[in-house]
Specification:
single chain, alpha+beta, 5-stranded antiparallel β-sheet, 3-stranded antiparallel β-sheet, 10 strands, elongated
């Protein structure tokens, strides 16, 4: 069991890293291209002549080290994620790391420009000479802080998605193995016998799930609830965008004359069925 959980966590981390690299690299390259082309367009509009390599070298040296440093941020965020219970402490840690991140980025970018500008542009360039090292760093740090924050927010969002994915997978696995449904509401986690399921109704961001023993309000989608029920071998049918019903309890389906239907259950209860889900109802 522990080996399986560990493997699932590692798979989630690899999936998160792949998606994060794709997103951050794509956005960084797009922004580099937009900024470089904008500099060329502004120079042309103002009648200034500039070496066409200059904007691409200027933006490219910055983008290159941002992408290199992103691999550092991947490891740092994994060690200090922004998550409930630790977010204040970890956010303070990231504030300090962002300062170091920016210093490395500015130094690497500046030294690289100092080295390649004379070779490629015939320009005796000095990155830190004007208006001064402190002013240059403060100017660049503002932009680096935005970049670091956006990358951290991206990783936090992707980690939240992966966490919910793993949680849903674990609930479906438990439903398959123990025929129990896992429902959450607030800080509570309820494990209820799937065979007692009657119907469910969407209620805003929650779902009202009715069992033989009572009704519970759960933080789950109807689609995810249906997946758990399927794993638990309960034939639940989506009859409406807001309703899910145990097929075994349906006694009659009556057309309303407008393409929709009314569904009658074994206890005399009636729920709506929409034409959108008519195919599922007919198969049921």
């Amino acid at each position: 069991m522990e080996n399986r959980e560990y493997q699932l966590e590692q798979d989630a981390e690899r999936r998160l890293s792949r998606v994060a690299i794709l997103v951050v690299f794509s956005l960084t390259l797009v922004m580099m291209s937009v900024n470089a082309s904008s500099l060329l367009m502004e120079a042309s509009r103002d009648g200034r002549e500039i070496n066409p390599l200059l904007p691409w070298l200027s933006e490219g040296t910055s983008a290159f080290y941002i992408l290199v440093l992103f691999f550092v941020l991947l490891r740092v965020e994994r060690r200090f994620p922004i998550e409930p219970g630790h977010w204040r402490q970890n956010l303070a840690i990231h504030a300090g790391i962002a300062m170091v991140w920016s210093i490395v980025h500015v130094l690497a970018m500046g030294l690289t420009r100092d080295a390649i500008y004379p070779l490629l542009l015939d320009w005796d360039y000095r990155f830190f000479s004007y208006p001064g090292p402190v002013e240059v760093f403060l100017y660049e740090f503002r932009k680096d802080l935005v970049t670091y924050t956006l990358q951290l927010m991206t990783l936090t969002a992707l980690r939240t998605i992966e966490w919910h994915r793993m949680e849903a997978a674990a609930a479906r696995r438990d439903a398959r193995e123990s025929q129990r449904l896992t429902l959450k509401c607030g800080g509570r986690v309820m494990h209820l016998e799937a065979e007692g399921f009657r119907l469910a109704k969407a209620a805003g961001n929650y779902v009202e799930v009715e069992f033989l023993t009572g009704t519970h309000l759960a933080r789950i989608t109807l689609s995810e609830l249906q997946k758990q029920l399927t794993e638990a071998r309960i034939d639940a049918v989506r009859c409406h965008r807001s309703w899910l019903v145990n097929k075994a309890l349906v006694t009659e389906i009556r057309p309303t004359g407008e393409g929709d239907v009314s569904i009658h259950l074994d206890n005399g209860q009636t729920i709506p069925g929409s034409r959108r889900y008519r195919g599922q109802l007919d198969r049921a």
